[in-house]
Write the structure tokens for this entry.
Amino acid sequence: MSSELVVEYLRRAVANSMSIYMNYKRYHWNTYGPLFYETHLLFDQLAGDVLKTVDEFAERIRMLDSEALGSPEEIAKGATVKFASSGMSVKAMIEQAIENHRLVIGEFKKAIRQAEEDGDPGTADVFVRNIQVHEKAEWFLREHLKEGGGLIR
Amino acid sequence: MSSELVVEYLRRAVANSMSIYMNYKRYHWNTYGPLFYETHLLFDQLAGDVLKTVDEFAERIRMLDSEALGSPEEIAKGATVKFASSGMSVKAMIEQAIENHRLVIGEFKKAIRQAEEDGDPGTADVFVRNIQVHEKAEWFLREHLKEGGGLIR
Amino acid sequence: MSSELVVEYLRRAVANSMSIYMNYKRYHWNTYGPLFYETHLLFDQLAGDVLKTVDEFAERIRMLDSEALGSPEEIAKGATVKFASSGMSVKAMIEQAIENHRLVIGEFKKAIRQAEEDGDPGTADVFVRNIQVHEKAEWFLREHLKEGGGLIR
Amino acid sequence: MSSELVVEYLRRAVANSMSIYMNYKRYHWNTYGPLFYETHLLFDQLAGDVLKTVDEFAERIRMLDSEALGSPEEIAKGATVKFASSGMSVKAMIEQAIENHRLVIGEFKKAIRQAEEDGDPGTADVFVRNIQVHEKAEWFLREHLKEGGGLIR
Amino acid sequence: MSSELVVEYLRRAVANSMSIYMNYKRYHWNTYGPLFYETHLLFDQLAGDVLKTVDEFAERIRMLDSEALGSPEEIAKGATVKFASSGMSVKAMIEQAIENHRLVIGEFKKAIRQAEEDGDPGTADVFVRNIQVHEKAEWFLREHLKEGGGLIR
Amino acid sequence: MSSELVVEYLRRAVANSMSIYMNYKRYHWNTYGPLFYETHLLFDQLAGDVLKTVDEFAERIRMLDSEALGSPEEIAKGATVKFASSGMSVKAMIEQAIENHRLVIGEFKKAIRQAEEDGDPGTADVFVRNIQVHEKAEWFLREHLKEGGGLIR
Amino acid sequence: MSSELVVEYLRRAVANSMSIYMNYKRYHWNTYGPLFYETHLLFDQLAGDVLKTVDEFAERIRMLDSEALGSPEEIAKGATVKFASSGMSVKAMIEQAIENHRLVIGEFKKAIRQAEEDGDPGTADVFVRNIQVHEKAEWFLREHLKEGGGLIR
Amino acid sequence: MSSELVVEYLRRAVANSMSIYMNYKRYHWNTYGPLFYETHLLFDQLAGDVLKTVDEFAERIRMLDSEALGSPEEIAKGATVKFASSGMSVKAMIEQAIENHRLVIGEFKKAIRQAEEDGDPGTADVFVRNIQVHEKAEWFLREHLKEGGGLIR
Amino acid sequence: MSSELVVEYLRRAVANSMSIYMNYKRYHWNTYGPLFYETHLLFDQLAGDVLKTVDEFAERIRMLDSEALGSPEEIAKGATVKFASSGMSVKAMIEQAIENHRLVIGEFKKAIRQAEEDGDPGTADVFVRNIQVHEKAEWFLREHLKEGGGLIR
Amino acid sequence: MSSELVVEYLRRAVANSMSIYMNYKRYHWNTYGPLFYETHLLFDQLAGDVLKTVDEFAERIRMLDSEALGSPEEIAKGATVKFASSGMSVKAMIEQAIENHRLVIGEFKKAIRQAEEDGDPGTADVFVRNIQVHEKAEWFLREHLKEGGGLIR
Amino acid sequence: MSSELVVEYLRRAVANSMSIYMNYKRYHWNTYGPLFYETHLLFDQLAGDVLKTVDEFAERIRMLDSEALGSPEEIAKGATVKFASSGMSVKAMIEQAIENHRLVIGEFKKAIRQAEEDGDPGTADVFVRNIQVHEKAEWFLREHLKEGGGLIR
Amino acid sequence: MSSELVVEYLRRAVANSMSIYMNYKRYHWNTYGPLFYETHLLFDQLAGDVLKTVDEFAERIRMLDSEALGSPEEIAKGATVKFASSGMSVKAMIEQAIENHRLVIGEFKKAIRQAEEDGDPGTADVFVRNIQVHEKAEWFLREHLKEGGGLIR
């Protein structure tokens, strides 16, 4: 059976993933500018990708016989990522998301090592599959911050 | 039964909605620039959203036992929105669409009040449901005219 | 590259096809009599078949690097088919549609010859595929005008 | 919370809608003549449209914390529409259905006013959405009784 | 051709099946208690299973060239099953349904024998296929009345 | 194992069913008059219903370890139904189809008795299921020949 | 255009609806007992129903040209419903959800009146449609708290 | 308008295509040997591909205002391909099908030239599209007659 | 109600059908040779066809108020068919399957007679429908054992 | 290449997974009591989840070039889980399933370690993915054995 | 039968189309800048459109009884279009794709003339249908290189 | 972050997987003999399975912030597998594919070890999931080379 440490990683994963989902919906609603339609769709796509991972983490906690947290307060308290705020530029949204994905990727790697040490391959696999969601989103957004490739300038 | 005024609102709704649909297809075909793919898709999406409302207005007229108009000449004559023309910039397309949606939103509000006064909740509901199509399109396009949010400039 | 003549044929095809679509929707809404349900469905089916061809013609114009027209005024001006009007009998609707399809079939044949002369097989194929939509509709409607086959009279 | 009057309107809506559904199935089975296939399909389509509304009315009663009725006896007793009977001509079926739809439309309008007075917008909306099912069916059938439009006579 | 007796069995099958359908919708709306969601879904599932059989019986009557009945009054008069009433407990709903299914199963067996005697294999098969709908429902409900199997008590 | 008689019934069923299918396609193509669209769709629907039964009969022959026939010549020779011919009125098409269905229904009943005598319940069931296709089609068409029910005359 | 009051109602609707969604997911994960499977499915179904409404409220705010909030902190601060906490019994989950739905229903009714006063039928309709989601959920859960109907006790 | 010659080509195309379809079904039923499953599926696939072309040819005849033939006798008389017969080996089935496809391909090429000469691009296109069905089938079957490629021998 | 004999037939049907399913999966996994892909697919298709029948037999036992068996031990004990074993050639797999299908077909015929004697048409129909699954599989496999039809040898 | 030990783990996985599938079907058929519908559905859901894993294990054995076992006798002999038996209470079914899942989870963990030692990441991944099916089922069932959460008791 | 020249055109079409497909995937992976999401999707869409044409060309070669080439080396050798390389700007990707499409369009026109001269309408049609894929892609990309239409600059 | 070695493994995986895809399409087009249909389908199925893995490898390179290669030249240069060539027998195709899969399986195992050493579980998982595609294909093809199992020889 996995150690209590792994449960903590799973609880943080729920809090951070739900927070990133909520951030994305917030960006989705408040984006603007000539790229409105593109970013409106992109943020919603990424929000959906991340939301699907929340259920897996929470249900994994239950399989390890602990309680899964998830109310707004619990999420706000348990998360270590940054929250979206008023008046952000689209660029700031993207930079914040990248920073959050990187933080989560780092934590998931530690969780994988811990789960493997504890001899809990199922939990490790949950993190291994879901880390790739964050790695892909990080790539997508990172590319948006590069120069325009000659099309725009 | 609804008054003749409501039938007039419905006939104008057919003419204006069909005109906005035709404008959008025209933008869809003639858009250009680095945002070609995004705007090509967006204009077609909005065209489709508006076309779906035309049938509802026309059939409502028939339920009130009047004749529904719809030939190109009748549409051209009955519409109060602006028509797309040659040589418009993409920005001009968007500005024209916003202006047209606002005009239609104003007319639909009057139509709703009239239908409610006439004790015709079915007709009122047709306008209430479809006004939201125009309100959403107006928001989508309005955002495109804002500054680039740090990504482009 | 195709000559300017072919672009004219394509523009007329857009105007006429959109007009026939709008006529069909108008018949669809205003048909009546014991065959109401059958003709209501049939006119809508034919409207949909024709609408699908409009996009192809307009986008073909763009591939030939010309501007595609499509606002209600442009359609009303560019069309050579007859427009639906008030107070038509169902029989008159069908007769008008047959006449319009025949006119369009004749024009498409000329367009095919022109495109082949210009060495533009893509444009020719667009007309060849879509002429069959009009030929099938013409047959469907033509049969409705025959005597009742013993069932009704 | 809505008054007892609104619950009465909802109970009558269940009884009348279920009755119209059952009438339509009866017409669907017993129609005949050269228009057999058309009317067989049409009556089944309208039956299905009306059946979907029954669930909404009954569940609305439950949300208002009253008991929903629905056995054959309760329906037979609670309905105010006319019931289909043996030996009806197809024309008589259509005339009966039109009459029933008009009766229901009148009742729904009263129900909407009552629900609005009671400050119960949810119930009002249930009636507003479903009144349109009856208004559309009334139009469809009314057109069938007009002269043949030149095709048949 | 089948005897008049078989038509009577088919008419009773229509009346009883439609009544059981209506009873199930009534249970579906008015069920309650800790098993609300389970029984709400189950009653609707069974209602749908039975409704599908009604069309088959009624259309079979028409193939035998008789008139199919189906108005609320005709159903109420022609049915031999018990009707749902106010204030039933969930247990009483289930007991009533079981009793009704058993009655119908018995009648269908007689109908099958009669149809076979009349040399009408098509009608016999309609009863043979649909008897299984009632046999399965009877089993499902019968099991609910047994003791809780150690889970609940 | 079934007797050779049953194989003969199955071979005739293939020939007659394929012939009725081909007749229906022929009616489907050549129908005309004000009911063109309705009868065009109806004949195609019935054609499809009957075609599905051909495979079952032919494969059943193979399960009984005999050869299944099916070339145009074999069908023309093996069929006992009437074939469509040039210049038929729509009414004549319907009358021919009714006559053919009745002939087939009679043969299938004999086949069922034979298969039951031979102790071959699988073959009997193939006929029992497929006889209902013909019984339903016969009803549909028979109704078309009745007087117009007040709508048309 | 709607007053600032309506925007406040919409912001509260986002916060409360997102909170109820998050509560439901929490119940979905942590439910237990003999009704585990039923309540596990039910809570997830209701979570999904409520989540769909969040997007509508937030996008409506944007149509009214205000900023939509949605980060975990903003939700936690803006919500007036109760949050799920550790160690709740299944019964306590259901009681809390009922209480929350009732609170939201009351607020939505006020919002509808305000939007109507402001002459903003689109916003009013968003509340009218979505109030029914809460009214249905409240009914479903309320029934679970009743006595067992004879089945269980 | 197309000459009478083209109508003759279309009539032959109906007869030959329907015959090839019927041959394929016959092969499909009577194939045997270690490749039973493969050839059983392949013959049915090809039968379906060819059947789809029959409707197009017959309806094209109707568009040219002639009568479409299609009864078993008419097909048997009008076809120029070979018919399947009793006792064919699987290899003989494939050889017969290849021969038939080649005959049809030759005829279609003549029909295309005739339709082009008559200035009937629609009819020409029907043949052009459908010739490819036969060309592909001919390739598929031709390959089966080659040596086994080292796998079998 | 059916006699105990019929329950015995149903129990044997469960055991034999489940065994044939398991045999087919075993063949599916271990087949080999140039026909690997064809037989791999065919065995899985037949496995699926047979598995669908198991549920019907077992649930029928429950409708007759007896206990359905199904654990591996009970299946192994209750089955009368032969079990797959190690080292079988593909031909031996097919021969074993044919033999098993024939045994089952014989038993189902006896079961049908018994159920008919007991006046239990529902049970009889379960056997009648499912016997055809075995009769078709037997034909499919039997053909594979014939000579190669000229293609292979 | 993997050692023979891993093949043994895979063979045991096939035997145990197939046994658990068969147990679940047996529970699915024989469950009873007020929770009949819920447990009937749940057991079938879990049966399906487990059956999907059997194919993966067996095909993995084939990739490692060994023979996959699967007849009823082989399953009965190779399994280490407990088999369902007559007269079990629903609670006993759930307890047996939990015990079996735990046994399998333990074995899969050992198999994962062995496959990793053998440098066979593909086999390890098959176990890692499928262990989660058992871990989720174990959680689902474990919760059912807890006290009723205030709803029932 | 087509001349060897046509086979050469088909082989070049395979090589060039596969190369364009591979180029598009390369652009799809390596695009960047504020338009990342739009161009990432667009390049993949165009890649898919072109890949669908490859199969048609290759299978056409087989119908003409020649060998179809397709290994990476053969493609690299047989292609006349430019290959994507490292370090391209997004603008350079688009310019290269336009140039390649224009080259292919020119070649396809020659191929069409050759196939028509050879009396091979099937091959001609394969080129005619697929030339339009390249003409549409060329238009899409060409528009991206125009000035921004007022939105961006 | 992963070392440069892992990027090299990913680049080779792109080149080899794309090459195997192209080989399979080439076999798919040029296969022949009595097993044509089976091998034509099988090679296309395997081609599709492998193509799906290419995108994953290329996008993984981008997540590691390197450039993904993919033009025909780059693929031809970067691949270590053998390329299909002219005049191969079907047996030679299968032998070549088996050899290529084995080479790739070996490389993927090294890549997995490297990625695990680098602490990059996401990349490792990409290889672990996709190695199974090659392992399954290797098994499928390997079986085809065995003796015929008594069916053919």
